[in-house]
Amino acid sequence: MPTEPKIRCNSIWKLFGPHPESTLAQIDRTLTRSQIQQDTGHVVAVKDVSFSVQEGETFVVMGLSGSGKSTLVRCLSRLIDPTAGQVLIDNRDITTVNQRELKDLRRHKMAMVFQHFGLFPHRTVLDNVAYGLEVRGERRQARLEKAMEFIDLVGLDGWAEHYPRELSGGMQQRVGLARAMAVEPEILLFDEPFSALDPLIRREMQDELLTLQSRLKKTMVFITHDFQEAIKMGDHIMIMRDGAVSQMGTPEEIVANPADKYVADFTEDVPRYKVLSAGKVMRPVNGQMIDSNGPTVPLNAKIESLIDLVADTDQPVAVVDANGTVQGTLDRSIVMKSMKGSM
After folding, report:
1. CA distance 111 to 117
2. What gap in Å lies between CA 246 and CA 268, rounded to an integer?
3. Using alpha carbons only, what angle is made at residue 218 by residues 167 and 174, rounded to the nearest 5 degrees?
4. Distance (Å, rounded) from C-alpha 10 to C-alpha 175?
5. Domains along the sequence of the chain with CATH
6. For residue 163, what are the contacts with CB-CB under 8 A and spacing of at least 6?
7. Which pLDDT tens digit goes with each residue over 25-72?
8. Are 25 and 98 in contact (CB under 8 A)?
9. Rounded distance, CA 231 to CA 3, Å?
């Protein structure tokens, strides 16, 4: 039975202007962002967005600059109040809580990692990481011990007494990540955390976060404008344009079946064999008999991981479901087509 989502957003709207609530109540909500701005002088930053995030999932929100993704993530923590809609955390609508309850939510359940680090230059790495625990009122010795644990966890052992100016950009972002994780939140929000980093350091930080997530199983909402980063990091991806949702699904679903040209443009340069699974490209068996003694692969195996196996055999490779039942076959021609992007 499906569990209740950790995060659920219902019809989130955010308008910027002098009278957002009354404007939203009066406008034709089917109009485009530019039409609403021309008619009312208000900017629609987020337009009727709904989605849910399961506990332990990494949910990626992506789009170009101005698509509304950063405004949306700020609505999740109420750094910005939505004009309309619900943001439910553990089935509780946080748009209705008072400031004391909101402060408690931010201190104990939710943490955010920003693009530009936000470190205190006059504090050491150790004191930066311990800051959230200090705000929460934990005793100095206890918070420093916990901060040291997370400094080690993000690979900064030996840097605790250094200052941010002595660290590279990637190291500073590790400090920001350790600071967010030190308060042991249930939910982590990332607003383009790696976009200011050099490409090599960016890939290292992506890998580091994936490794940490495999251990900690946090619920993560990750904002990016980079589709390659989105498919690498996300269990599900939501693509935004002009404040609205263009498409939502798994990386495989979006790459295999883009909803429109806007989405298709993002997927154009993606190596499909890195995203597509055996179940997506297999040739269905349609009742034919398959040699059960030959090699088999699961439905969800990525084509990238099967290249050597298929190359080393002249026989079709059986694709099986969780019960071991053959659902289809793969062969060299299918794998080659998926690598060329012609499927």
Report:
1. 13
2. 16
3. 0
4. 33
5. 55-75+94-271 (3.40.50.300), 274-340 (3.10.580.10)
6. 121, 122, 123, 124, 125
7. 999 998 989 999 999 999 999 999 999 999 999 999 999 999 999 999
8. no
9. 24
